[in-house]
């Protein structure tokens, strides 16, 4: 018996050694070993000194480029910048600002934040941070932000120039966590119709959305316009939580599946606060990923009407892989599918073609005419409740198409915007008239109804444009005039109040919102979907 156990142990040991050797041989002959040997040889034998870290980073980037457009590598600094907006906060002094003539101009201190508590006001100019001059020295915005940000409870000394005060004012600001909101706006756009705009799907999005929804419902909201135009995505869980607000219990929201990732399904819990009201979702060519998850779920369950233009078409799921130095690989591990089984990922033959897709769409006329868009029969799917035809393979196609409005956009307008003339002229107006306007318009509603951009303001804009090298064109100026007036009014509203008021003004020119309001005037809402079978 003793010998039997001995030989059994010996045999087990032998096979373990064989298995280990097999694994070693497999590794020795693997592509990974080849890569390791190449890096070792370069680092130790190359004629000149090399930066190993940079070489490895570039090798990783090149490998990922061979996979798909959304598998990426980010260095530690890029990871930090990427995570802050999605985490919902960062640590700093709490101001909204713009750079005006090489000087940091405070647009608004964050309500209840460190700067407001310290006494900093909208319109103040930050001239010095500690003993370093930051105004008029061509310092990059990134460098300025790095000086203003810092750990919670740390202090930073500022010197500020305030309109009407000759000397610089000293302030000491105690840094704190500053919220980064993912909702740009929420307001009653019309009697019984609420409007919510989400700019990204972050860790705090669901909480922000529920709060906004409750406030609108208190004001009598029965119908909702959810604006996802320009929303490039974010966290999958945030998208699932938002979709849950609209769908019934056990209705599938999305599922994911990949080569090494078995099918995972995500269902609505039936706890949503807006399961029954009339819903319209706005999308455009920049609505992607998490935005398309929400839109696809709403469309596949015939829960609401989708309005706008075909969405971006990103249906790949990335898994973040943290590396020891703080860098990160975001690796595509699965595709996501809408409840009807659509994968809305657009083709990616090459990164070059992929990156030029939106330009190709524009050149082919797709953004101006619904008839320019064609899907093969193989990409047809049926919605769950009304058996309407919907399409996969390249973004979410809206139920009601709204062409891009090119009538107001001219070369002259574009140059005023791109060269910063519009922003510079607006800073001049807000700086000179802030107190006057706040005294004249006690509420935003008064401003919205009564404020008009004056001929003097427009003349100042044209003069500012000339100073910045924008050649005046009378025909193009007249064509762009309604849009210029609206943009100036919206920027002033933002600086006197906040982004909510900015969108309240600028949305007056949004054709998709106009279409949504037109559809909500129809008594037979379900009939709007049946027309699109």
Task: Describe this entry's structure for a reader.
With 533 residues, the chain is of the alpha+beta class. The protein has 4 domains: 32 residues, no CATH class; 91 residues, PDZ domain (Pdz3 Domain); 219 residues, 2-enoyl-CoA Hydratase, Chain A, domain 1; 102 residues, no CATH class. It is 42% helix and 20% strand. It contains 19 helices and 21 strands. Strands 3, 4, 5, 6, 7 and 8 form a 6-stranded antiparallel beta sheet that branches. It has a 6-stranded mixed beta sheet with strand order 10-11-12-15-16-21, sandwiched between helices. Strand 17 and strand 18 form a beta hairpin. The radius of gyration is 28 Å and the shape is globular. The termini are far apart. GO terms for molecular function: endopeptidase activity; serine-type peptidase activity.
Helix content: 40-55%
Instruction: Identify the overall geometry.
Output: globular
Do you know the CATH topology of the largest domain?
Answer: 2-enoyl-CoA Hydratase, Chain A, domain 1
- Based on the coordinates given, report the CATH architecture of the largest domain: Alpha-Beta Complex
CATH superfamily (homologous) name of the largest domain: 2-enoyl-CoA Hydratase, Chain A, domain 1
Structural domains: how many:
4
From the alpha carbons, calculate the radius of gyration and give it in angstroms.
28 Å
Just give the CATH class of the largest domain.
Alpha Beta
> How far apart lie the N and C ends?
78 Å
Largest sheet: 6 strands, antiparallel
Helix-and-strand structural type: alpha+beta
> Mean pLDDT score, rounded?
90
Number of strands: 21
């Amino acid at each position: 018996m003793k010998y039997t156990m001995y030989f059994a142990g010996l045999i087990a040991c032998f096979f373990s050694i064989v298995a280990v050797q097999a694994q070693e041989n497999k590794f020795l002959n693997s592509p990974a070993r080849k890569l390791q040997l190449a890096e070792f040889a370069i680092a130790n034998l190359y004629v000149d000194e090399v930066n190993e870290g940079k070489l490895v980073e570039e090798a990783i980037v090149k490998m990922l480029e061979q996979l798909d457009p959304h598998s990426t590598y980010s260095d530690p600094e890029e990871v930090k910048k990427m995570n802050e907006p999605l985490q919902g906060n960062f640590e700093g002094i709490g101001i909204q600002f713009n750079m005006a003539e090489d000087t940091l101009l405070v647009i608004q201190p964050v309500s209840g934040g460190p700067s407001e508590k310290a006494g900093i006001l909208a319109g103040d100019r930050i001239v010095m941070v500690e003993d370093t001059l930051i105004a008029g020295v061509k310092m990059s915005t990134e460098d300025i932000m790095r000086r203003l940000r810092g750990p919670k409870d740390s202090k930073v000394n500022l010197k500020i120039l305030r309109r009407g005060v000759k000397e610089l004012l000293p302030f000491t600001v105690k840094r704190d966590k500053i919220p980064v909101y993912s909702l740009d706006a929420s307001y009653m756009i019309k009697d019984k119709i609420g409007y919510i705009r989400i700019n990204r799907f972050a860790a705090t999005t669901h909480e922000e959305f529920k709060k906004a929804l409750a406030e609108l419902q208190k004001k009598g909201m029965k119908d909702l316009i959810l604006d996802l135009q320009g929303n490039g995505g974010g966290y999958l869980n945030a998208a699932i939580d938002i979709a849950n607000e609209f769908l019934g219990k056990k209705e599938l929201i999305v599922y994911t599946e990949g080569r090494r990732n078995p099918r995972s399904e995500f269902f609505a819990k039936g706890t949503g606060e807006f399961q029954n009201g009339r819903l319209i979702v706005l999308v455009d060519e920049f609505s992607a990923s998490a935005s398309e998850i929400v839109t696809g779920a709403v469309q596949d369950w015939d829960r609401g009407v989708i309005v706008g233009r075909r969405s971006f078409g990103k249906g790949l799921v990335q898994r973040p892989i943290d590396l020891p130095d703080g860098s990160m690989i975001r690796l595509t591990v699965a595709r996501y599918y809408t409840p009807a089984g659509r994968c809305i990922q657009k083709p990616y033959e090459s990164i070059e073609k992929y990156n030029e897709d939106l330009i190709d769409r524009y050149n082919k006329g797709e953004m101006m005419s619904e008839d320019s868009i064609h899907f093969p029969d193989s990409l047809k799917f049926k919605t769950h409740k009304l058996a309407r035809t919907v399409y996969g393979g390249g973004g979410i196609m809206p139920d009601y198409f709204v062409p891009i409005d090119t009538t107001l956009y001219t070369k002259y307008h574009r140059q005023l915007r791109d060269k910063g003339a519009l922003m510079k002229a607006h800073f001049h107006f807000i700086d000179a008239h802030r107190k006057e306007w706040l005294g004249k318009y006690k509420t935003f509603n008064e401003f919205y109804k009564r404020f008009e951009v004056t001929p003097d303001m427009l003349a100042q804009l044209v003069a500012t444009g000339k100073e910045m090298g924008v050649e005046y064109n009378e025909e193009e100026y007249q064509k762009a005039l309604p849009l210029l007036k609206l943009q100036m009014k919206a920027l002033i509203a933002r600086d006197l109040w906040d982004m909510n008021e900015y969108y309240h003004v600028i949305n007056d020119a949004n054709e998709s919102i106009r279409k949504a309001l037109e559809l909500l005037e129809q008594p037979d809402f379900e009939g709007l979907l049946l027309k699109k079978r």
